[in-house]
UniProtKB/TrEMBL annotation:
Residues 42-73 form the Transcription factor CBF/NF-Y/archaeal histone domain. The lineage of its organism: Eukaryota, Metazoa, Chordata, Craniata, Vertebrata. It comes from Anas platyrhynchos (Mallard). It comes from the Eukaryota. InterPro entries: CBFA_NFYB_domain, Histone-fold. This is DNA polymerase epsilon subunit 4. It holds the Pfam family CBFD_NFYB_HMF. GO terms for molecular function: protein heterodimerization activity. CDD domains: HFD_POLE4-like.
Amino acid sequence: MVVNGGGPQGHPVEETLEGGIPLNGGSMVGGPVPNPLGANKELFVETIAKDAYVYAQQGKRKTLQRKDLDNAIEAIDEFAFLEGSRCEPARIHMERLLLLEGDREVEVVGGCHCSAWPEECLRLPALKTFFPDSPWEVTVDVGRCSEPTYGAGSLFCMPTKFSTALVKNPSGGKVIRTLESCEMKEKCYRVSQVEYYYEIVHSSTGHREKRLKEIDVGRCLGSCSSGDPCLLRESQGGEKCLAWAEVASRRCAPHRYDVHIFRSHRDRIRTVVAIQQCKCRG
């Protein structure tokens, strides 16, 4: 890249192809000009990190938080282009680790980038690579939900509909759950889960028929926050907690049900319970 048409000490810079071949017929002095973007990225990250650390020190903290970066971006006009964006993983691949307690699959972030922060609840792409550096390497869009910037009270952008994708591996295949849609929901919420059963019915003429019965049994997703258990901190806005309360664990569980009773294809009375509402319970 040439700025103001000159190189170091104002000497002209000739355009060259990779390998040092001149494009404008001039003589080749050396190899290709090194790309300065890497150094610029390091300088940018160092600058914004230093500014964010000032806000962390004001809060008497030694670790950076998201709000420190937000404050640094809002305070400096040169960082205005970052407003409304967030740092997110650019590449993720799954690796299987052999631990003492057995195999565990972990996500490894291969790089980060700034992306737009949508103001509405959307399903966004999220690419994950399975079995990297192998003949079975494949990348799947598993999807994720956005985090809207506007205040929506107690509602959050949560996953509501899922699908599956089959990934081939040395053992035959692996089923990967993918996200299809997101909606604004409470943290503990019900999602649809359809199950199918054979039902025996008798027509008006007395004939016995076997039909396929569809029941949305539902399931509960989400989490139940119990608030901040810390009762006393070292200082206002400090991270060190001096006294905390024991909080009973809460879970998102079914609250209301519907009951479906029918005769199965084995001529037995079958009862299926369907979840209608979910609620946090201790």
